[in-house]
Inverse folding.
């Protein structure tokens, strides 16, 4: 039976490999260790390199400076794939495959909408106004996730003409998870049901102990090869070669980023963007603030992040089989060596990032 499941998994990975499989969550400050809300996205896409950039207002209607993740090569900064602005507003999205289809001639505009939101929005209400006033059809098919500096958060399941809001205030246990389907439509459509359950089960122990932190996602969930349907964590087993199917980290994974909001009364400039760029199991966290983007994340002359390039090299070692269907197999023995090394760097960088925020908070009080 076990072998039949693994064969089926391989078939599904080949059949549906074109669907980008993001996993995400919003966590209320009431459910986190620090009391700050969290917005997390584990990103999957066909462009394996990306970079982070800081963008200042330059066009009519733009109000805020923001920091965002871009696909490598995007020298125009047209599509922001997740980010935060100086008002403490943060946004990301997951593609949804059970909403009404995009119009034929006007689609794939999620990155454009998020760039607009980052430049214009302070609150969730501002984002709702943006969706209400954008020309229709909007060319989107997505679950947009947001938090703002008031501690509020929500998902907006959005198609060309309409959206349905799922508020964090109404969420059971203060957690909302979304993958690649929308809950307001036929929930037999779309993708990501197993990944959504993976995330829920992996979050649950931290939720029970009020111990959710950004590292819960970057060092735990984005490095986890737990499969909720099979009931097994393949990273903890003895298998060398494992089929890449229905784990949260996938061959198409290109970043895992957690936006950590602020406490009541804190300035929005204390919002953190904990950035794990490239294939997350082979990467480590780098702390980002609105006015502090480390050079290793910024685009070089080739419009690549230097850190992302090094992560992609490690990823290619992990997915080393090039012929036939070999690209769907993970060398778990190698990954078990790489992940602890990268996690150690993350832990050090988390400590530095928390110190950076603490120093910023002290300077704001002077």
């Amino acid at each position: 039976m076990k072998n039949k499941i693994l064969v089926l998994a391989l078939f599904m990975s080949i059949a549906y490999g074109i669907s980008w499989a993001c996993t995400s969550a919003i966590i209320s400050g009431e459910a986190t260790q620090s009391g700050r809300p969290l917005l997390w996205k584990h990103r999957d896409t066909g462009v394996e390199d990306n970079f982070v950039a800081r963008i200042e207002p330059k066009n009519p209607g733009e109000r805020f400076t923001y920091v965002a993740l871009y696909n490598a090569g995007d020298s125009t900064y047209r599509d922001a794939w997740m980010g935060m602005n100086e008002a403490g507003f943060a946004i990301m999205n997951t593609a949804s495959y059970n909403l009404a289809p995009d119009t034929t001639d006007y689609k794939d505009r999620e990155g454009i909408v998020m760039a607009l939101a980052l430049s214009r929005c302070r609150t969730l209400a501002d984002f709702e106004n943006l969706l209400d006033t954008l020309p229709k059809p909007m060319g989107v098919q997505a679950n947009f996730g947001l938090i703002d500096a008031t501690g509020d958060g929500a998902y907006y399941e959005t198609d060309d003409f309409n959206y349905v809001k799922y508020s964090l205030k109404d969420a059971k246990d203060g957690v909302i998870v979304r993958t690649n389907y929308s809950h307001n439509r036929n929930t037999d459509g779309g993708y990501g049901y197993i990944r959504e359950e993976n995330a829920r089960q992996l979050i649950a122990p931290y939720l029970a102990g009020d111990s959710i932190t950004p590292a819960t996602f970057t060092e735990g969930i984005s490095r986890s090869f737990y499969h909720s349907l099979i009931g097994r964590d393949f990273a903890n087993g003895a298998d060398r070669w494992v089929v890449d199917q229905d784990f949260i980290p996938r061959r198409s994974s290109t970043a895992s980023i957690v936006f950590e909001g602020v406490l009541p009364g804190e300035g929005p400039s204390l919002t953190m963007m904990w950035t794990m760029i490239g294939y997350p199991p082979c990467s480590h966290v780098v702390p980002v603030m609105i006015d502090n983007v480390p050079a290793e994340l910024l685009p070089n002359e080739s419009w690549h992040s230097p850190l992302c390039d090094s992560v992609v090299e490690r990823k290619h070692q992990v997915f080393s089989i090039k012929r036939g269907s070999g690209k769907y197999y993970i060398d778990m023995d190698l990954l078990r060596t790489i992940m602890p090394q990268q996690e150690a760097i993350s832990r050090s960088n988390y400590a530095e990032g928390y110190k950076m925020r603490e120093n910023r908070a002290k300077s704001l009080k002077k």
